Amino acid sequence: MRRKDCEITDKNIIYDIMQKCDAVRIGMVDEEGYAYMVPVNFGMEIQAGTCSLFFHSAVSGKKIQLLKENSKVSFQMDTAHKLHESEKMPEITYHYECVMGKGLVRFIDDPAERERALNILMSHYTHKDDWVFPDSLLKRVNVLCLEVKSLTAKKH
Fold first, then answer.
1. How many domains does the chain have?
2. Does the pLDDT value for residue 41 go beyond 90?
3. What is the DSSP letter of 60?
4. Domain of 134, in residue numbers
5. Which helix (H) or strand (E) holds 130?
6. Residue 8, pLDDT score
7. Could you tell me where the beta strands, DSSP code E, fall in 2-116?
């Protein structure tokens, strides 16, 4: 990272930033070698120092096709956006907190694990973690886990 004064290295602070985010953008490589980015809702779990992000998806589509071909992804999320205004051009800046990382995505097939992952996701937005999901819903969605392998973060 070029701006070491903005870098955040404390994992607990990074995890706090992640918890404040509304969406995570998942980056994959498409069939032409271009980045393919999609925003998704997510839930987060930290266990034994390992971070996992859970999200759901339709059972088919470009994202699913690309993830089945290559489970390696990059991701990005940001929050705390605020414009710092000034009458002088060089002093105008935009403040934010962001996290970038890499990881592997796996499809969750076990019904109990799928329901647990969806509850983690729902808890991120509703602060309620005892949702009951009908089988009809569980059969028509993919539930995925992004196992985080590396993280960087900054606050500007």
1. 1
2. yes
3. S
4. 4-155
5. none
6. 93
7. 7-8, 24-29, 35-40, 43-47, 50-57, 72-84, 93-107
